[in-house]
Amino acid sequence: MARAFVSVGSNIDPYNHVRMALSMLRRHAPLAGISTVYLTPAEDRPEQSRYYNCVVCLDTRLPPRQFKLAVLRPIEAALGRVRTEDRYAARQIDLDLILYDDMVLKTDDLELPAPEIWTRPYVAVPLSELAPGLRLPVSGETAAGVARGLPRGKMEPLEHYTRLLRKELLEDERFES
Prior knowledge:
The structure is a single chain. The protein is α+β, with helices and mostly antiparallel strands. The chain has a single domain (2-175), classed as 7,8-Dihydro-6-hydroxymethylpterin-pyrophosphokinase HPPK (Alpha-Beta Plaits, 2-Layer Sandwich), CATH 3.30.70.560. It has helices at residues 14-26, 64-78, 121-130, 143-148, 159-169, and strands at residues 2-10, 31-34, 38-40, 51-60, 94-100, 105-106, 111-112, 156-157. The strands form two sheets. Strands 1, 2, 3, 4, 5 and 8 form a six-stranded antiparallel beta sheet that branches. A two-stranded antiparallel sheet has the order 6-7.
């Protein structure tokens, strides 16, 4: 089994799409943890609706590329995600594999660890909540250390929504508080 971390984002009906995506993801692997869900501005698109962003932790037997293509992409498609040339287009759901054990991998369609961990607070902060002492491959920095070095800016915790998700979707009650 490999420990995987997936970043989750949505700014089209995010209340429902994040919940549905996590419910679908849970059918493939029990969720071990759900970070706080944060309301954040759209990256480089101030005219767009704000995003719900979080990170989930799970264990999987699938290799990373297969996990991405056989689990994450079909969930996105089922929820209406259509990928376009515009990397910053609004979306129903965005599921990105950001860590897979301590694997380092760089292919045309997958990079592990995901470079966004070091540049996007809405990825680093939720990751650090789930695994603060986790040493990141390549840099050796802890998740908490990376998160501390990034500006949190306009990240607004959605505590009530987070509690609802955890209560509904987590098998392990240790992560429900």
